[in-house]
Each structure stands twice: as C-alpha cells, then as structure tokens.
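Hi support team,

I'm filing this because I wasn't sure whether my run with pyridoxal-5'-phosphate finished correctly. The job status page said complete, but I'd like someone to confirm that the output block is well-formed before I use it downstream. Pasting the exact inputs I used:
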Amino acid sequence: MEKKNIDWSNLGFGYIQTDYRYVSNYKNGAWDEGCITTDSNIVLNECAGVLQYAQTVFEGLKAYTTEDGRIVTFRPDLNAARMVTSAQRLEMPAFPEERFIEAVEKTVKANAAFVPPYGSGATLYLRPYMFGSNPVIGVKPATEYQFRLFCTPVGPYFKGGVKPLTIRVSDFDRAAPNGTGNIKAGLNYAMSLHAIVSAHEEGYDENMYLDAATRTKVEETGGANFLFVTKDGKVVTPKSDSILPSITRRSLIQVAKDYLGLEAEEREIYLDELGDMAECGLCGTAAVISPVGKIVDHGKEICLPSGMSEMGPVTKKLYETLTGIQMGRIEAPKGWIHVIE
Ligand code: PLP
Ligand code: COI
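And here is everything the job wrote out:
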C-alpha cells in the first residue's frame, strides 16, 4: 500500500479530506445496508432536525499503524456502545454496534493510504456521527437519520505536543445535573465554544469545568477528562454523572493498576484539594494524555510540582504504556486491540 504524500510528522489536529467515507440512512424504522462513498458533501433539507434542534451525536477513535506494520483500532466496541447511549438520550435510533465496527473496518481499509506510518507521531482520527435528516419544525425527534463515518490523519490535539498546558477554572458550566454531559452530543460542544474562545483570548489552553450544582468539584474540560496523580503517587480521576465516560480514562485506570502497580481510583475531586496533586493530565482520544502544568482559579495559580517543561513521571509512564499498547509495542489486555489488516 503506497501512502499518500503527507508530511506526517508535522500534522496538527485538523481536517484533511480523505478518499472514502461510510454512509447509512435510517428511514421507515430501519437502517439501510450502508456503503462506502467518495462523496464528502451532504445535501439536507433546510428544516432538517439537526439544523433546527441540534439532534446529532458523534464519536471519536483512532487507527494506528503498529510496530509490526498492522493497522489497528483501540477498543472500538466501547465507542459503538457509547454512541448507542448518546443516541437514546436524544431520541435517535441506535446504530447497531456490529454495524459501527463494520463501518470502522470498511472506512479504515478503504483509506489505508492515509493511515500514518508507525513512528511518525500521527494517527488516523475516525469520526462516526449521526443526525436527524428529515424536516422537523415542531420540537420533536426526526424520523429519518443519517450515520456517517469519515477519517482524517491528525497530529497532536494541543500545539506544542507534550508541553504542559495552562488551564483556567471556567465561570461557565458545561453540563447540568441530569443533563447531557455524559453523552457525546454536538450540543455539549456548541455551548463550550464561547468558553474556549475566551479562554484562548486570555492565554489559556483549556477550561476546567466544575460541577454546576455546587461549583466545588472538578468535572472535565471541553474535550477531555482529567487525570491527577496525588503527592503520594495515587492516580485519581473525577467521578461524576455529568462528564463523558472517557474510554481513554477508563483504560488508563486499568493500565495504572495492572501494568504499573499503582493505586488508581475514580472519586469526587474537590477544587480545593488540587494543591495536594503532584501531576495533572487531560485524557481522551484526541488529547491522549496532555500534561497540565498550571491551573488558574480566578487569579490564584495552582502550579503542579511537575512543572511547565515536561510531563510528570507518572503521567509519562501512563502515556508510554498506553501508546505502547496502541502501537503494538506492549501486549494489550484481551479485546483492546481490533486488527483491521
Ligand atoms: N470528555 C469530552 C468532553 C470529550 O469530548 C472526550 C473526547 O472524546 C473525552 C472526554 C475523552 O473521551 P475518550 O477517551 O473516549 O475519547
Ligand atoms: C475526541 O477525543 O475524540 C474528541 O471527540 C474530542 C474532540 C473535542 C476533538
């Protein structure tokens, strides 16, 4: 397979159009058989449900070239399951989980020339999504939907790669108790755009959202969960019903325990205990683990002891083990690696 002529090592996190994508339509209560297409455009009615009432959910996962030259994806079954949960919350029909995996396989295979080579630092980001496609003017669910899956080669989500980030405690809330914070719906990201633009204008890389009810507990950022290492070496991540159940974070907890022999716990984390943390990272498919060096809470600086020049030692071990598993250098737990070819 001849690869595309792309400067893999200098990619940012952007959209590069690839040759093929997968499409399936839902009508009269059933999904059609779906197919691969070269058409990257979508023509919609002006009143389509997604355009009026934001009825759309999505997923994000990656394909990797392993050390021995295979193309693999990481735990796609969990993305398939999460997309069903997201769809149900927005009254959308579930896209069958086995069909989701089939769409991943077909799209990655068709775009094998875009899967970044091993060692390049880049990966192929896959974006499955679905939306209400027929006209809806009263507030109600659409009756027709489209599922799509496209892919794009990407580099690091944050410019500067593994340089520690500076984040601020946001005055905006991301998710309400009993709201939609625990699903991957486009609406959660639309409402975060003002907060991220103003964070960037003020020189911060991201927002730390707090729980909306008490504003005392750490939730997550706009696109990643938090992971902390306490000063006594324990890995802790926020437990909340209003954050996205990150597949990366759940995997890292298992990596911490089973591969690194660390204590790891999901629990409520209070803003006023951040001074007791030794390391902090943002974890997610796009973010992988991006280290945080400083958290600013309305002028009060919380400087993580790991500093502003490199990842803390535990974060680094977690990063190396997780990416080692994803790139086939380290044996994966059963079922984590889905071989495409
Ligand atoms: N939190 C939010 C809000 C996200 O958008 C993402 C990205 O998917 C994550 C967390 C990380 O989830 P995952 O590790 O499943 O990619
Ligand atoms: C992902 O990590 O897959 C996400 O969806 C985060 C997104 C904000 C880029």
